[in-house]
Amino acid sequence: MKRVNLEYKYFLMDAVQAILFIFWRWYKQKLPLVIFIVLCLNLVIAPVIYAAADSNLERRSAWAIGILGFVTLALLIYLSDVIFRPERY
User: Fold this and answer.
1) 8-37 in b/e burial notation, b at 16+ Cβ within 10 A?
2) For a designed S-S bond to 62, which of 24, 40, 50, 67 qualifies (C-beta 3.0 to 4.6 A apart)?
3) Is the dihedral of CA 46, 47, 49, 54 positive or negative?
4) What distance in Å separates the CA atoms of residue 46 and residue 32, rounded to the nearest whole number?
5) Domain ranges across the chain
6) What is this structure's pTM?
7) Under 8 Å CB-to-CB from 50, ≥6 apart: which residues?
8) Whether the Cβ atoms of residue 42 and residue 71 lie closer than 8 Å to each other
């Protein structure tokens, strides 16, 4: 008789349902999901900035620089879209 790990099976189903829920909510509320994604990406960017500064920078400052970089990139994309497709706005 084969033993089935039910916790793993239900965990997988919960993960799939969570992912589907996130994608379903994407159409209704984009801003919270975008903020969440930027903060998750900042988990990768902030240590790189902190390491490149040779420890002369505080961790909080590295996080702020990372978020500032993402905000600058978002404004660049938005303003480029406004310039090239002004009829939408």
Assistant:
1) eeeeeeeeeeeeeeeeeeeeeeeeeeeeee
2) 50
3) positive
4) 20
5) 29-88
6) 0.55
7) 57, 59, 62
8) no
